[in-house]
Amino acid sequence: MPDPYGDRTLLTSAMTRGYDAVPDEERDGLRRYLEAVVATRSAPVHTAVAFNAVYFGYDLGGDGYGGSPLCLEDFPVITFGERAPALPVGAMVCVTTGSDPLYAEIVYREGAHPQVGALGDVPAWVSGAPAGAEGPGRLADGAAPRRKELLVPDLHAFGPALSLPSAQLHRLRTRRRWINEDGHVVVDVRYPSREAARCDDLTAYADHLLTAARKQLLSPFVPVSLAALVGGTHDDDLRAGLLGLLDTVRGVLNSSGMLRTWRDYAMTRASLAECWRDTGPLGGNDLRSLAAAIEHAANPGRRRYGLTAPVTVYTAVGPRLRGFPGAKELLRGVGYAAAVCRANLALADVVQGDSDQGLFRNGSRITLDDALEGGGVWRSHHPGDAETLGDPLAPAGRGWVSTLPVPSELPEPETELNPVDSPLADDASLGTGDLLRSDAEEIVWRAPLRLAQLIDGWFPLHPYVVEELGRSHGARSMVRLELNHAGEVLDEKDAVQEVTAELHHDSGRLTGIAWPRDFFPGLMLELRRLRGGSVIGLATMRLKERVQVGDRETAHCYDPRVLTREDVPGSDRHGDSAVGLAPRQLVMRTVRRCGLLTLDGHALMDRSVLPSAVYGRRPARSQAAALESAVAELLAERLLEPALGSRDAWGQPHFPPRDGQRTIPLIGYRPARPRVIRPWGSTEPSGEGMRGVQFVPGHLRRLRPGCSPSDVQRAAFREHCRRLGKADGWELPYGYTFVTEHTRGR
Asked: Three-state SS for 616?
């Protein structure tokens, strides 16, 4: 059976580029291990948890993570019923108990809105509501929204040695002080921004690992370090590599014939079949009853003269399962996560097998409306044949949307651009920034400089800084801003500035900033404030080498999405206008501004809407001809590139093109990429010179009983640690040796 600490590493450099880049042989080894993990664990295995297993070394023999040399002191601490930072699925935590620490891995999370009824009845506005919603169509003021969430911790993930005895756990559940009676933790989560609250699970987990759990991620005691896999510790390289690994793990889980997945949760087909055969509580009979209840929930009574009243019902799966006789004991601990995922998968199978895109023979339409709240909220609507068809399993949030102003009451956009539908990124998460550290000494966060901030001389403060400054200095105060432009010498007037901190409830910003001359939109800035102080440090970070991106050359870290969107022709620190631009500049500006972004800063746009997007109207013939000539020049010079997408029956374009849809031409902006130096000396990811060999990064290997590492391997491990940033190195943990990087034939 493959083992993360075994003779062959399960994670490889190819996996940092995503599932499609991984050779079949490497996929197979990872798949066998993850299938065994899913079969071994009691809870459904989320992609983030599967990543943990292979990256942090989950032992299949019963010790879990207890056999891995993880530093437990680095885990965040959570307390039942209190405010907590956002903790995604996969986070390793210490649950406060008042006595012995309770180490656990979060294996499942859901919204725990207080207005969800005991039998799963959900007010319309709650279904699909964003964090911070206070009522129908109403959001709380402030930039740091809150949401009550239920977290399911696996209290046995660290093996018997780090688990509390069953009698002690029973006492904790009975007292309901540290965990509730089901062994779950309910917390009041505060998100750093509205954009962060909208992140998908894997992006949120990547952010968590790169910030709050950074020491854990970059620990030299993991089987093979992410830094070794990507060849460095640069933030952009780590993020790209981590997202690639998560994509690889998700692809492996989805491709397994032994597993089935509900969203990002994987279960064995054998366990699902056993559940359907079970005639007891939450078995096949109860799942069929649940599906029938949701299918008929909106069937209306008849009025006089045969008129039928439209009815919409929202049902949350988690609370609804609690209503089945005998279910209480089965919904404790991780059993709750298993039951909810099985129920959702059963409902999905019924919808896909017995309906036409959610429309059933009885006239009702059944769709998933909210994937988070209450374990998943399903929408039953009658009559359903009047509604637009769509994917019934794509959470639409129609409940919340139904409480917003009708479209006729909303302001009309200047132009209809019809952006390409890409799964990679959207403008909602553009340049939102990350919290890097918040401890007793300081608060450190990072965010890109935006065009509006560059023009008007301001920068947003992190909500944690706003809260602390508000308590100590009031709504308006003077702050000393100290700038450090890595590798550059700043004028004295730029290096130290007296600026104003303006605070408004949960939001605030620094105003009156004189940005140095070579600062640009998208430049990444790292800010830190010592607790109780009135000085804020602001610093840039250097790249390994200078890069050319569009018309800009830089040696400093940047957010490629912001750079693509905002560092366009006609935009600089003096203003933002398309007036007076030549046709080539207009085309480039429009594609970069209006195309849908990918995570690495590409922008793709439907070519047919370019003229109207440029001018906001149908252009004159001479204008259209000039634009078409400019597009041809830019394509010939490879500053833009052609691509193909598709358009569905409702006129919505898609990329990549979808089967059965009419193909349409797209134009794409592809920013320049820095060279990536591979360990074997090739700059190409799959060149001829490396087809016969595989690069193996340095990694830990578990020793057989009675064996010990040589002095050479101890020294090699200390050098490996120094490359990861530990100046004096670390000693090898007991029971492990270090395998130095090497190549091997395939």
From this structure: coil
C-alpha 510/C-alpha 487 separation (Å) is 24
Average pLDDT over every residue of 412-421: 34
Our CA angle for 308, 314, 320, nearest 5°, is 125
- Helices 284-296, 335-354: axis angle to 10 degrees equals 60
The conformation of residue 85, written as its DSSP 8-state character, comes to E
| Ranges assigned E (strand) in 64-119 | 77-78, 83-85, 92-95, 102-111
* pLDDT-based confidence at residue 685 (cuts at 50, 70, 90): very low
pLDDT by residue (tens digit) across 204-263? 999 999 988 888 898 888 899 898 898 888 888 899 999 999 999 999 999 999 999 999
Q: Cα separation of 326 and 73, whole Å?
A: 39
Helix axes 335-354, 269-277, angle to 10 degrees: 80
User: What phi and psi values does residue 78 have, to the nearest 5 degrees?
Assistant: -125, 150
**pTM, full prediction:** 0.68
Among candidates 559, 538, 521, 343, which has minimal Cα distance to 433? 559
Distance CA 311, CA 296 (A): 11
> What's the pLDDT band for 266 if we cut at 50, 70, 90?
very high
Query: For 13, which DSSP code?
Result: G
Convert the pLDDT of each residue in 708-739 to its tens digit. 888 877 887 877 777 776 655 577 887 888 88
C-alpha closest to that of 107 among 199, 180, 183 = 183
For Cα atoms 528, 531, 532, give the angle at the middle one, nearest 5 degrees.
125
Q: Is the peptide bond before 656 cis (omega within 30 degrees of 0)?
A: yes
Burial 516-555, CB ≥16 within 10 A → b, else e:
beebbbbbbbbbbbeeeeeebbbebbebeeebebbebebe
| Angle subtended at Cα 267 by Cα 261 and Cα 270, rounded to the nearest 5 degrees | 120
**Lowest-confidence segment of 143-157, 385-399, 439-453 by average pLDDT:** 385-399
Alpha-carbon gap, residue 149 to 188, rounded angstroms: 6
Give how far Cα 28 sits from Cα of 211, 230, 252, 257, Å: 31, 21, 8, 12
Report how far Cα 411 is from the mean position of its chain's Cα atoms: 31
The pLDDT confidence band at residue 467, using thresholds 50, 70 and 90, is confident
Average pLDDT over residues 462-476: 86
Q: How confident is the model at residue 743 (pLDDT cuts 50, 70, 90)?
A: low
Residue entry with tokens 């911790």: 153
In a 10 Å sphere around its CB, with 0-12 CB exposed, 13-18 middle and 19+ buried, how is residue 258 labelled?
middle
**SS3 (DSSP) at 84:** strand
Residue 119 belongs to what H/E stretch?
Answer: none
**b vs e for 390-405, b when ≥16 Cβ sit within 10 Å of the residue's Cβ?**
eebbebbbbbbeebee
pLDDT of residue 114: 93
Residues pairing with 93 in the sheet: 104
Q: What confidence tens digit (pLDDT) does each residue in 55-102 have?
A: 999 999 888 998 777 778 778 887 776 777 788 999 998 887 777 778
Within the chain, how many helices (H) and strands (E) appear? 21, 35
- Dihedral Cα 37, 43, 49, 53, nearest 10 deg: -30
**What DSSP string runs through 154-165?**
ETTTTTGGGS--
- Inter-residue contact 606 to 621 (CB < 8 Å): no
102-111 and 496-504 beta bridge pairing: unpaired
User: What is the Cα–Cα distance from 393 to 374, expressed in whole angstroms?
Assistant: 16
Interior angle at CA 30, CA 25 and CA 32, nearest 5: 95
**Sequential DSSP letters for 458-484:** EEEPPHHHHHHHHHHH-SEEEEEEEEE
DSSP one-letter code for 356: B
